[in-house]
Give the backbone structure.
Amino acid sequence: MTTVSENGRNPATPAMRTPPVVSPEAWEAAHQQLLVKEKAHTRARDALAAERRRMPWMAVEKTYAFEGREGRLSLVDLFEGRSQLILYRAFFEPGVYGWPDHACRGCSMVADQVAHISHINARDTTLVFASRAPQADIARVKARMGWTMPWVTITDDFDWDFGVGEWHGTNVFYRDGDKVFRTYFVNSRGDEQMGGTWNYLDITPLGRQEVWEDSPQGYPQTPTYKWWNWNDNYAAGATPDKRWVEVSDVGEASFRDKEA
């Protein structure tokens, strides 16, 4: 280990004990050694997502009501016609630190991480935040913080019934017509991983819906990468852009060769 000079820091603070400084060749060797473990971690994460897609479902028998911008909504309404729903319970309401100007600091950080929801929507999935604050307060704070995801008001025991009455958490549901099933739940540090399109899709029952995934027979899957698009250019039922198919094929072939 080497010692980094304090550079003006408080003399009472011990100097950092940092790793050694090495040549470019030694650095690359260390990187390649660590990369082996990182690739194993990626494969283990994919295997865990595959196992998650095979988890049993729980039927939601109870009726729940929410308030949205346009009025009363059912749990089925929150899907917005899609098959999958990711529902994050954010704490923004009287009694929460920050009220009425801000939501909970942790929940606000989660909200700040959310990727453009058009990419999530493109995979037949809807992301919604839910709190107990009235819609007028939610709209005000969303505008102030620059958040654009749908955000509804909980009006009954939904939060207590699904493990998020006293702490944040993300529930995942699947819709078959008017029937709704709970398929997954994550909270605490698991919520730290949320926000990116891939991490959200990986906790859904259908996954990313790409052909490389290990999913149960009959699950919807499309060619890898081909559905990717600019966030303002998704169109329902559109065929993949021909030029993007060519570009992504070259990119995939290149990294597959390196993997081999």
